[in-house]
Amino acid sequence: MRIGVISDTHGLLRPEALAALDGVDQILHLGDIGNPVILDALSKLAPITAIRGNVDTSGPCALLPATEVVEYFGHAIYLLHNLGDLDLNPERAGFATVLSGHSHQPSIEKKNGVLYFNPGSAGPRRFQLPVTLGFMQITAAEIHAEYITLL
């Protein structure tokens, strides 16, 4: 199963992001959506699970949950916007992966058997950070994460 992971669009859904996500089985948006039309556009590509971020304070995006849990092939995955708000121990809670955005900095790190994945920001460029999104390839045996640069 191939999952597209996107975050921090801030109201901008780039054509490069749409092209990159075309063909995925599922899309996870990790908040700071900025405009609900982004979710509508992404849902035309694949089923989508989305959470709100700190800029999603009004309208339909404000009604999204702050966190979410999804499961694929027995792997539990925890979604939150800001990793600094993590208020549980993922290893003890049985999560294989924690997905977050907010920092606009892509990262992949494994700690205590838990994969921490931030796909970076696919929206407006912030500072000198790259414009990125991510993918997870999930099988019963493992989760592989990667991010790609869109621009």
Provide a compact summary of the structure.
Helices cover 13% and strands 34% of the residues. With 151 residues, the protein is mostly beta strands. The protein starts with a strand and ends with a strand.
How many distinct beta strands? 10
Ranges with pLDDT <50 over ≥5 residues?
A: none
CATH class: Alpha Beta
Largest sheet, in brief, is: 5 strands, mixed
Class based on secondary structure composition and strand pairing: mainly beta
What is the CATH homologous superfamily assignment? Metallo-dependent phosphatases
Give the overall silhouette: globular
CATH 2nd-level architecture? 4-Layer Sandwich
Order of helices and strands: EHEHEEEHEEEEE
The helical percent reads 10-25%
CATH topology type: Purple Acid Phosphatase, chain A, domain 2
Query: Spatial order of the strands in the main sheet?
Result: 3-2-1-9-10
Number of structurally distinct domains: 1
Mean pLDDT: 97
Describe the structure.
Helix content is 13%, strand content 34%. It has a single domain, classed as Purple Acid Phosphatase, chain A, domain 2 (4-Layer Sandwich). It contains 3 helices and 10 strands. It is mainly beta.
Describe the protein's topology.
Layout: E1 2-6, H1 15-21, E2 26-29, H2 36-43, E3 48-50, E4 67-72, E5 75-80, H3 90-93, E6 97-99, E7 107-111, E8 114-118, E9 132-138, E10 143-149
Parallel strand pairs: 1-2, 2-3, 5-6, 6-8
Antiparallel strand pairs: 1-9, 4-5, 7-8, 9-10
